[in-house]
Amino acid sequence: MASFFLTKENNNFKIIIDESLINILVDDLSTYSKFFGVTFELTSQFVIGSISDHEKIKPFLKNEYFSLTLQLSHKKNELNNSIKLNEWLTANKILRNYFLSIDDVNKYRPLELNYDLLRVSFDKGCYRGQEVVARMKYLGVNRRRFSTVIIKSDYEFEKDFKVVGNKIDLKNYGVFNAIIKREDLETLKENKGVITII
Hints:
Helix content is 20%, strand content 30%. It is of the alpha+beta class. The protein has a domain at 98-198: Elongation Factor Tu (Ef-tu), domain 3 (Beta Barrel). The strands form 3 sheets. Strands 7-8-6-9 form a 4-stranded antiparallel β-sheet. It has a 3-stranded antiparallel β-sheet with strand order 3-5-4, covered by helices on one side. It has a two-stranded antiparallel sheet with strand order 1-2. The model has no long low-confidence stretch (mean pLDDT 86).
């Protein structure tokens, strides 16, 4: 339905979500919220994303090279080392973290977008679609892999990949997510226009 980040401040939970997905998520959760005395209130704060090689704040995602963090602020901070949105989105793509857009709603299952590894807990409660996700994790064979592909900017990629979302043009490269058949991974990596597949 939607991808988001959840933070806790005192007794309140804050959901950081793309503005276009707010109503979809609130409408979906409202069915359940009345049973638990939960209410939703729309607030407006600045969201500060950081890419760092050290962890001042607990990261939501990291690899051996860098970590990604998010903070909420009531005022716009002056950041000395600010980056462009494309660079932030590219860092998330490199860590195979996909942000759903309005066009993606009800289009993918969690395991198709790597959410079974990044966003789904197999130890907590029930949720809609749990049976399919759990069955694939414990019993199934996933023949496709959600990947990040980095290509040369002049490479015509559309014919070789099932692209998910948009391609980001950054310097002389293109970066995008794709769902790739596992048996095709090595062949695609050998293509001259492909820099790497993560």
